[in-house]
Design goal:
Order of helices and strands: EHEEHHHHHHEEHEHEEEEHE
Strand content: 15-25%
Radius of gyration: 24 Å
Number of strands: 11
Number of helices: 10
Helix content: 40-55%
Length: 279
Amino acid sequence: MFKIVLVPFLFATLLSAELINGVSAVVKGEPITLQDVSGEMRLSKTDAMAARDILIRKKLEAAEIVERKISVNSTEVYEDIKKMAASNKMSIDQLYDTVRESNGLNSAEFKEKIKEKLLSQKLYSAIAYASMEAPSEEVMKEYYELHKEEFSRPKAFVVTLYSSSNEEALRKKIATPVLSSSEVKIEERTLPYDTLSPELAQLLEKTEPKSFTPIIMDQKGAYMSFYVKETQKPSKSSYEEMKSQLANLVMGAKREQVLSDYFARLRGNADIVLIREAK
């Protein structure tokens, strides 16, 4: 049952006046505070209504996880962190340091975030599994034709690589490229797309020409940033070249639709009370 309440005193038997003044919504008896909404706005870079919707979805997911008795143990969390470190060519300690520097999370908080992610993945799999089946050749070809532009990729990136063992020196050099620094090494490179890791290729594709990528770490723990001078002419991938990826893309799109429909129905039937917006 979905309710919108405009008069706070109707909740006097459930919540004190002081608490109500700090609450934006109540989902199955669990409050979402104005402070929660403000925090989600900063994290998601979105407005108050969208932030509250995200938090309502999280509350519904948490309730589903409990009802379905879904769990994640410490071994699963550690294995996921190991994979993440390996995919970024880092040691686990380097990954912890990077997360702490970029997101301000200590190792315990980071592990908790990983646990939340794995719980959600298990929940999503449980919800979507019954509705999923491998896409046909016809469906994959149709998807390819509709998304052709997404399958074009650059031939190569012409970059200037800035690297240093001193992160602060690298940051200063990026901020002021004309600044001379003996601690920063500079190399001109042309990087063919097919030679790059998926993570680096994606990073370079997202970076506008004539600008720097965020600072990342290399395999040896040094800091580096790429100045993208030019993205060489894109080439389109054929259906046959993309076929191995198309099944996953189609399944992913269908999975998201199944989950969206499921939680929309869940929200429509849940006991949710909206009280006020965050400022």
